[in-house]
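Possible regression after last week's pipeline update?

I re-ran a chain I had predicted before the update to compare outputs. Posting the input and the new output here so someone can diff against the archived version. Not blocking, just want to make sure nothing changed silently.
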Amino acid sequence: MPKPVLIAEEDQKLQNRLTNLLIKLNYKNSDLIISNTLKDAISIVKENRVAFALVNLNLPDGNGTKLIQTLKQQNSNTLILVISEWDTKDAVLTAIHAGATGYLLKERNDVEVTMSIKQILQGGIPIDPFLVRIILSARLRQPIKLEHSPENLSTRELEILEFVTQGFNNQDIANELGLSRYTIEAHLRNIYSKLSVDSRSKAIKIAYSLGLF
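New output (post-update):
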């Protein structure tokens, strides 16, 4: 399990709650580092090779996005789960672009938080369901020039990628669009190539970070 774990959160009740959830996942108290402020958290990160971080963006002395950037600068492999009350599209995309692995709202219960932590530890990218709806409501339908690709995603490819971000499998997408599964798979290969990725999860993360949906 990745450790040490940094909890950057000013609310003591939430600190205790997250600590208890991590201990139930077989972490020890000695694996956990707790910080109340952005300044203190950044100092901790510069002195410790943090492997996993739970970050509130709304810290009393600044935006936790700066902490995310520092974490990634110190260790590009650090796993970062944002747990914040900020629920805007801009907040989510800015955090993901800075390097956050997942984003969850504070209102989620212990089961949902635990599931998100497990998902990150297993290589997933948990995004709060409420925030997914907000992001998708601002979806873009026109072909977009991608920063790391010489090609554009076509309207059809954007349509398929949107279904992917919603959790549809290839057969489900085929049924929705009236196409064969093999056609969908061919489109996905093109999408992966244009996004320079090799998996569904990476394509979803790129889509969110580029603000495609």
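Follow-up from reviewer: compared with the archived run. Strands lie at 5-8, 32-35, 52-55, 58-59, 62-63, 79-84, 102-105. Marking as no regression found.
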